[in-house]
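Help wanted!
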Amino acid sequence: MDELDPVIHASARLKITATLATLPVGDQIAFPRLQELLGMTPGNLSTHLRKLEDAGYVDVVKSHQGRTPATYLALSRSGRRAFEDYLEALRALLGETS
Amino acid sequence: MTNRTTDADEPLGDPRATLALLEKQQRQVLNAQQTPVIWMYLIWGITWLVGFLALWSGDADGNPWFTIPGYVATPIFIVMLVASIVASAVLGIRINRGVRGASVFSGAVYGLSWTACGTAFAVLGTGLISQGLSPELANLYFPAAYALMCGTIYLGGAALWRDISQLVLGLVLLAVGSASAFAGSPGNDLVLALGVGGAFLIAAGTLQVRRRVGK
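Answered by r_m:
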């Protein structure tokens, strides 16, 4: 039986990766918009994003819009694969085949 | 190799509850993207329905039950049309806000296609009038042209986003728009009010019901 990836298997990070997985490949989402979709505080979101970034699951791109710094996020290739594996492992635990 | 961490302070329930949480979150994201679309369908449904019923009722040969003076019917139609265009522009910008990347180009071209096609059909109609198109035929041309424009662009949207609601809506609009001319003027106004307005309202209602039942 597959082990559930502990990086994703925590409610906040599960919600973050699930949200980022809805973005088409090649798209990135701004930090405030992601925060709005998740209903998380900036501090909490930053903490969990850092863990996902450390694991290589999330790409963080810092840029500027005019003079305002902007942070954009997306699942990395390995993050997308890890999320798909996680989903598959979860379904396998439930006896579902995908 | 990934650096794996565990969070003892964030317990997740059993796999079924975990999967439910994951699916609920993804549904919420899709709902957030879909809300402006439902509003657009609703707004355009009301505009086509009420606007064209007003035009139909503003013609002496139209509504058999009551007649609205032309100086009232036409402004109703124009005000609703302009308000819907402004609302669509605002809602359209909100659909993908905060997102950048590959899909932004597709969205921008899709948005631009409404303005470009709308202008092209208006210029063509004006050209036809300059070449002797009668007011009666112009009354058939313009609304049908815009129904066909909406139908065609919705088919493009369906292809871009694999969206069944846009596919069905596009096909219905093409059918109603092309058939409307056979009703003559002002009968075409009634056909478009019920056909196009009805299609938009049914699309809005269907999407709203689907999101309520979580599909």
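OP: Thanks! One thing I noticed: Residues 30 and 85 of chain B are 24 Å apart (CA to CA).
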